Amino acid sequence: MTDLFQIAGKTYHSRLLVGTGKYKDFDETRAAIVESGAEIVTVAIRRVNIGQTAGEPSLLDYLPPSEFTYLPNTAGCYSADDAIRTLRLARELLDDHKLVKLEVLGDPQTLYPNIRETLKAAEVLVKEGFDVMVYTSDDPIVARELEQIGCCAIMPLASLIGSGMGILNPWNLRLIIEQSQVPVLVDAGVGTASDATIGMELGCDGVLMNTAIAGARDPIRMARAMKLAVESGREAFLAGRMPKKLYSGDPSSPLAGLIATK
What we know:
With 262 residues, the chain is an alpha/beta fold. The protein is built from 9 helices and 10 strands.
């Protein structure tokens, strides 16, 4: 794709961002991510070893930072303080790495974001020089506030994390896209390729997913499907779809100029 994607001043070809959790082992993780074509991989610092646990296999050996841009995230954090500490640790482990994904959860069942704590953490992290991509609700006002704080990308949920329910509120997503001056990516809720395509057709700059690939019966094949889905959705958005009509008096095969049969 020649339609390039920029985050925090760096350019990427792929608009698909993928997680590294829930695979059966690191070999499957690498195989799926390579098949997806993703260049940015998100890592749950509290769950995946990237050097904080000596003597155990490290994701860095399978997905070296020389090949992929790491996006450390704060999955499992329920307060601004926990999230800030986690990303400070990630910065140390990854040699002053600045690009991060902030998510502060409000509920262990739904994993819905705690917006107050998210805003609090975002303010601190941006002031400390982090490039913050932020998981949030699909509230356009909250999205605007996060952008004003200085987040480099807004990532509203399509539906609940891990639900696979797809995009439940395309109208709010459109409002966020139209008002934002930074990239907007669908984050959470994608279940299959058509969900990713719909997000891109709406005008999202990218899609971030994990369970939709890792939880598939064949993760490698699903990774390939998601790659194609994101690309086709982006192409459709750029092409501009025809308007929807209940019916049309302008048939695709016009009646005027028909050759007479008598």
